[in-house]
Every structure is written in C-alpha cells, then in structure tokens.
Specification:
This protein is mostly helical. It has helices spanning 2-10, 18-40, 43-88, 93-103, 109-120, 125-136, 139-154, 159-205, 209-216, 218-242. The protein is built from ten helices and no strands.
Length: 252
C-alpha cells in the first residue's frame, strides 16, 4: 500500500484512499473480464484479460504519477529561487511559502493557497508542511520542505546556501534526465506494445467458434496460461531493463 499511496499522491489523487482505488480497479477489471468472456465465449481469456486490465490500471497510475512529477520537477528551481530571495530579504519561511500562492508558478499556486488557508485556520506549520508534501507527492518537494522545517525548528543561517545548492543540482539533473528520456521513452513504449499485441490477436481469433472451442479445451487453457506467464515475465523484464534510476521519497 505504501507504493500505491505514493503513486496516488504523485498523480495528484492524494484524496483517494489506496484501498478504495484498488477495490474500484478490481471491480472494473472483473466486469471487463466477464464482458470479454461473454463476447468471446472463452472463460480463460476473460480471466487473463481481467488480470491484464488490473495491471494496466496500475501502469496508467504509475505513468500519470511519473509524468506529473516530471512536470512539477521542472518548476521547483523557480520555487527555490523565490523562497531564497524571500528569505534573504528577511521574510519568514511560512510567509515565503504563502507568497507563492500569488507569485509562484501557476501550476503550483493552488497548493500553496491551500497551505496558506490551513495556516490561517490554525494549523501548525509542521502539519501544513506535511499537507504540502502529500499534495506534491514528489521527492524534490519532500527534500525542500524538510529543509525548511529544520530551519524553522532549529534555526540556521545557511538556508540560502542550501537552497542555492539544491537549485543548482536540480537544474543539472533536469538537463541530464531530458536527454535520457527522449532516447529511452520510445524503446520502452514499443516493447510494451509488443507484449500486448499477441493478446489482441488471440481476442480476434477467439471470435470464431472453432477457435473458441480450442481455447476452452484443457490444452488451450494451458497455452493461454503459458502465454500469460511469458507476457508477465516480459513485462517485468521491460521494467527492470528499461527503468531509469528514480529518487526515493525518503521524507514521504
């Protein structure tokens, strides 16, 4: 559930409970499996289609979280620069974050507006920072907000230096990541299509009565099961070989 909760936060669905999301996805997968089983007349195909739909739903969630985090990451250098300028001018950390509701990147203003609203409602700064972390669901925001938390709790004159270093490292990471993503994305996407293609062919073939009878036989079920296991292994292999190093949300 920890991965699912982190993915929901990264995808901007932090208000959805992980158990509710998973049960809803299981329900949709079961319905789709039953529909495919009824249309094709092949019960095993419906079962494997339902399992595939479940995996596809989790994949779509992970993809949405990854894309949103990538978009937010591009905005954090601007946020860090704004906070650094505010702190240098003598503004408190809480006020510096609050000002971002009006002067920060447009994509992030609603989150900082919610942060400001919670402070005005009597929330403690620590609780409001935790709320911001769940709103963004990103390791870069986690590190920034934890650094700001330490400064507010313990004080420190090196906050501006820390912010400058973090902004510099983040810009370097973005530059390198963009070059790698452009070359790697189409390779992984093509491989995933190759995994799904045989099942589309099986679905088309099962529309004929004689093929459906074969797939419903004991040997046909065995072939479908073997194909599903091979597809599962290939899909996992794609993720292992094609995955780029991802920063963990240590402070989530």
């Amino acid at each position: 559930m920890k991965w699912l909760r982190s993915s929901l936060e990264g995808a901007g669905l932090q208000r959805v409970r992980p158990i509710d999301f998973f049960l809803s996805l299981c329900f949709i997968s079961a319905i789709l499996g039953l529909v495919i089983s009824a249309i094709s007349g092949v019960a095993p195909l419906g079962l494997f289609s339902g399992l595939g739909t479940l995996g596809l739903g989790l994949e779509m969630l992970a993809t949405r979280a990854r894309m949103r985090r990538r978009e937010l990451t591009k905005l954090w250098p601007e946020v860090i620069d704004a906070i650094s300028s505010a702190v240098v001018s003598g503004v408190s950390v809480a006020d510096a974050l609050t000002e971002l509701a009006d002067r920060g990147p447009t994509r992030l203003r609603n989150a900082f507006l919610g942060f400001s609203f919670r402070l005005d409602s009597g929330w403690q700064l620590a609780d409001a920072l935790d709320w911001l972390k769940s709103e963004f669901g990103d390791e870069h925001s986690d590190r920034l907000l934890e650094a700001l938390r330490l400064v507010t709790q313990n004080g420190g004159s090196a906050i501006n230096t820390i912010l400058r270093i973090q902004a510099k490292q983040l810009r370097q990471d973005l530059s390198q990541r963009a070059q790698i993503d452009s070359k790697q994305g189409w390779v992984v996407g093509t491989a995933k299509i190759a995994v799904a293609a045989p099942w589309l062919i099986v679905g088309m073939l099962s529309m004929r009565a004689e093929n459906a009878a074969i797939y419903n036989s004991q040997s046909g079920v065995g072939i479908l099961l073997l194909g599903f296991l091979i597809s599962l292994f290939a899909y996992r292999l794609i993720h292992v070989l094609g995955a780029l190093p991802q920063g963990e949300r240590v402070f989530a």
